[in-house]
């Protein structure tokens, strides 16, 4: 069935039209009893969508893919990827790209579903999603957006009225996701895998037009495109590290060309600062541990370079040389982004070399098992003259006192620190509390948590519990991909 899109004349189908080899036309599964759980009204306004109509039966049809505008072309995207180092052909096994809309700023944005039923890429999965993991993506992606970290966004989560069978029977849901695109490193690896250089070139041209249009007239557009993605990812990963975000499943199919964070499955934020932290239940070797994320990103970008080799030069040896030179900029870009961000967290100006100071305090955090987010907020209090909240976090008082003396001698700006060090993040115990309540039918804890993380830097009365570390009995936190 088709209907008018609330507030928009139609969905575009640029990806499906320009790259049909990567687009399998498909339909979303029926939803027996759809019920709106959460709707991202600010995002809906950005997209020019009518909020009230989205809440109607017609709107639920859009948000579940079961009633779309006339002429819509929902597709399951094909891509490949290295999953924990092993290459395989993949694709949207439980997702559909409904199409694109132009937002209020004139930018093209994907409207995409997750948990909308089996597709030809399902590889034995049921194609469905449970309420809890879809709400996790909603909460964490909104937090990342509020923190200023490039990310896909969640427009809505709709309960389907269908049970999903995992370890237990859970209520099912569909997530409506918005992104500047869903192009991934794995999209290019798919073209590489089938040895289709024409598709590879058209895919690169499509990505340049969509994300880096200024490069279209560049004498070496594909090399410049690769360099732009390297820079975007270096900046993104540095931002993850600065706030203590652990993605958990940094496979090449989960690295976007746009530089947006995508796929909030087994993800979480650090509690105590422990560089080897792993949250994913399936990452037994720690491949994607917090400390390994820059290296994992660099590895993924090397695979991206391999896919693009035919576009760099006709001679393969020369193409490899070009790619290696370009990839070498990742570490420089990452180090610069991380250092600038760390100086800001420390409240220091750009002329200060804070590398040694930052490394030393991170070692102290690890040694005393200090809560990462709490430390940085308390540090601003120390910049205002009261060091006791910080000192109370550490076991080695002489060491932290010596460090604080050197740091305060540099004249840190407390107000500037408060603008970059969040007070409210999706703390793991609060996320689990909210998801458990929502799965049981109570959405109030979720709404409260979202309200906190959408304004992460400003302290507010009544939100004290959202700034508190996990209780001692919370234990080792582990997350699951939800499939």
What is the helical fraction, as a range of percent? Answer: 40-55%
Q: What is the end-to-end distance? A: 28 Å
Strand coverage percent: 5-15%
Q: How many runs of DSSP E, i.e. beta strands?
A: 11
Average the pLDDT over all residues and give the rounded result. 94
Coarse structural class: alpha+beta
Radius of gyration: 23 Å
Strand line-up in the sheet with most strands: 2-8-9-7-6
Q: Describe the main β-sheet briefly.
A: 5 strands, antiparallel
Shape: globular
Element order, helices and strands? HEEHHHEEEEEHEEHHHEEHHHHHHHHHH
**Low-confidence spans:** none
- DSSP helical segment count: 18
Keywords:
483 residues, five-stranded antiparallel sheet, globular
How would you describe the overall organization of this protein?
With about 475 residues, the chain is an alpha+beta fold. About 40% of the residues lie in helices and about 15% in strands. Among the domains are: about 15-180, no CATH class; about 185-340, no CATH class. The chain has 18 helices and eleven strands. Helix 5 (about 130-145) packs parallel to helix 18 and helix 8 runs parallel beside helix 11 (about 330-345). The two termini are about 30 Å apart. About 50% of the residues are buried.
């Amino acid at each position: 069935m088709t209907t008018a899109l609330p507030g928009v004349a139609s969905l575009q189908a640029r990806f499906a039209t320009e790259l049909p080899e990567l687009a399998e036309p498909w339909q979303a599964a029926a939803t027996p009893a759809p019920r709106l759980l959460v709707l991202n009204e600010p995002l809906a306004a950005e997209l020019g969508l009518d909020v009230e109509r989205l809440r109607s039966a017609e709107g639920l049809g859009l948000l579940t893919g079961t009633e779309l505008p006339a002429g819509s072309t929902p597709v399951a995207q094909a891509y490949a990827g290295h999953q924990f180092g092993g290459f395989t052909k993949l694709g949207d096994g439980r997702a559909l790209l409904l199409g694109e809309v132009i937002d209020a700023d004139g930018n093209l944005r994907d409207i995409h579903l997750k948990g909308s039923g089996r597709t030809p890429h399902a590889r034995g999965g049921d194609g469905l999603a449970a309420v809890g993991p879809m709400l996790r993506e909603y909460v964490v992606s909104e937090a990342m957006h509020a923190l200023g970290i490039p990310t896909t966004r969640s427009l809505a989560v709709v309960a389907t009225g269908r049970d999903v069978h995992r370890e237990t029977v859970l209520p099912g849901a569909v997530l409506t996701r918005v992104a500047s695109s869903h192009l991934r490193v794995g999209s290019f690896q798919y073209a590489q895998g089938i040895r289709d250089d024409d598709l590879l070139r058209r895919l690169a041209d499509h990505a340049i037009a969509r994300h880096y249009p200024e490069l279209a007239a560049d004498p070496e557009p594909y090399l410049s495109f690769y360099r732009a993605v390297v820079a975007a990812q270096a900046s993104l990963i540095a931002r993850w590290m600065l706030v203590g975000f652990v993605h958990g499943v940094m496979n090449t199919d989960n690295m976007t060309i746009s530089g947006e964070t995508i796929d909030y499955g087994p993800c979480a934020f650090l509690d105590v600062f422990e560089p080897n932290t792993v949250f994913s239940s399936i990452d037994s070797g720690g491949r994607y541990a917090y400390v390994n994320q820059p290296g994992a990103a660099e590895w993924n970008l090397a695979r991206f370079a391999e896919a693009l080799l035919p576009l760099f030069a006709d001679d393969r040896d020369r193409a490899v040389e070009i790619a290696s030179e370009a990839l070498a900029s990742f570490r420089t870009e990452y180090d610069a982004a991380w250092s600038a961000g760390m100086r800001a967290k420390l409240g220091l100006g750009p002329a200060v070399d804070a590398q040694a100071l930052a490394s030393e305090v991170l070692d102290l955090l690890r040694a005393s098992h200090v809560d990462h987010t709490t430390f940085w907020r308390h540090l601003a209090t120390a910049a205002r003259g009261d060091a006791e909240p910080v000192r109370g976090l550490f076991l080695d008082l002489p060491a932290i006192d010596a460090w604080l003396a050197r740091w305060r001698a540099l004249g840190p700006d407390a107000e500037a620190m408060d603008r970059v060090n969040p007070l409210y993040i999706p703390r793991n115990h609060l996320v689990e509390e909210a998801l458990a309540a929502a799965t049981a039918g109570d959405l109030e804890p979720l709404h409260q948590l979202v309200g906190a993380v959408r304004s992460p830097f400003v302290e507010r009365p009544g939100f004290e519990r959202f700034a508190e570390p996990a209780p001692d009995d919370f234990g080792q936190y582990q997350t699951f991909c939800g499939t």
